[in-house]
Amino acid sequence: MNSQAATAVANSKTPTMWRFFLSELKPRGKWFTWFNVISIPVIITGLILIVIRFANGIGAVTNLTQEVPWGLWIGFDVVTGVAFAGGAYILTFLVYILNQKKFHSIVRVTVLNGFLAYLFYAGALLLDLGNPGM
Amino acid sequence: MSINRRNFFKVVGVTGLTVIGLKAAGNDSKAADDTEFHGVLYDSFACVGCRNCENACAEAHGFPLAQDELVAGITRKTSETQRCVINAYSTPNGEAYMRTQCMHCNEPACVAACLTKAMYKTKEGPVIWRENKCMGCRYCMVSCPFDVPKFEYHSANPKIQKCDMCYDRIIEGKIPACVENCGVALFYGTRRELIAEARKRIVENPGVYVDKIYGETVAGGTGCLYLSSVPVNELGMKTDLQNSSYPALTKGFLYSVPSVFVLVPTLLLGISKATKNKPEKNEEDE
Question: Region B84-110: what's the mean pLDDT?
Answer without folding.
Answer: 90
